[in-house]
């Protein structure tokens, strides 16, 4: 079965074209880290790494199906590895602990003073 068709059927991407573009961009790799092609043959038991934004999912192919189906059934096509789950949990925890915000007025003044002293360029 084609890799792009399986990614679409497993609901990792909304369309096959988006799956193909992600594969061509190198966001989908096999267990060894080698880039795959959209027409790569996929087999049961194969491990695939999918990068989406900051997340990196490692999934093991459990079933092959070439049609898109309900999300609950699509989740049965793969199993995420334990290492991938713990890595995602740590990333989520770090994202919650360190919210990204703009510096307030006092922080901007401190940065301006450091720049004037020539310590920061």
Task: Write up this protein.
The chain is an alpha+beta fold. The protein has one domain: RNA-binding S4 domain (Structural Genomics Hypothetical 15.5 Kd Protein In mrcA-pckA Intergenic Region, Chain A, Roll), CATH 3.10.290.10. It has 5 helices and 4 strands, in the order ααβββαβαα. Strands 1-2-3-4 form a 4-stranded antiparallel beta sheet. Strand 2 and strand 3 form a beta hairpin. Helix 1 (3-9) crosses helix 2 (16-24).
Secondary-structure map:
Blueprint: H1 3-9, H2 16-24, E1 28-30, E2 47-52, E3 55-61, H3 71-74, E4 78-80, H4 82-97, H5 105-117
Antiparallel strand pairs: 1-2, 2-3, 3-4
Helix pairs in contact: 1-2
Outline of the structure:
With about 120 residues, the protein is of the alpha+beta class. The protein has helices at about 5-10, 15-25, 70-75, 80-95, 105-115; strands at about 30, 45-50, 55-60, 80. It is elongated.
Q: Over the alpha carbons, how many angstroms does the gyration radius reach?
A: 20 Å
Task: Work out the helix count.
Answer: 5
CATH architecture: Roll
What share of the residues does DSSP label as strand, in percent? 15-25%
CA(first)-CA(last) distance = 53 Å
Morphology: elongated
CATH topology: Structural Genomics Hypothetical 15.5 Kd Protein In mrcA-pckA Intergenic Region, Chain A
CATH superfamily: RNA-binding S4 domain
CATH class group: Alpha Beta
| Unreliable sequence segments | none
Helix content percent band: 40-55%
The major β-sheet equals: 4 strands, antiparallel
Summed over residues and divided by their number, the pLDDT gives a mean of 89
Secondary-structure-based class equals alpha+beta
Q: Please count the beta strands (DSSP E, at least 2 residues each).
A: 4
Write down the domain tally.
Answer: 1
């Amino acid at each position: 079965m084609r890799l792009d068709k399986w990614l679409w059927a497993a609901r990792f991407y909304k369309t096959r074209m988006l799956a193909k573009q992600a594969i061509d961009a190198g966001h989908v790799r096999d267990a060894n880290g080698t880039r795959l092609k959209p027409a790569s043959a996929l087999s049961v038991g194969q491990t695939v790494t999918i990068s989406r934004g900051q997340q990196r999912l490692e999934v093991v192919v459990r079933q092959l199906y070439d049609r898109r189906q309900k999300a609950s059934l699509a989740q049965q096509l793969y199993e995420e590895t334990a290492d991938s789950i713990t890595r995602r949990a740590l990333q989520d925890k770090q994202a919650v602990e360190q919210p990204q915000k703009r510096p307030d007025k006092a922080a901007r003044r401190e940065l301006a003073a450091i720049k004037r002293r020539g310590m920061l360029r």
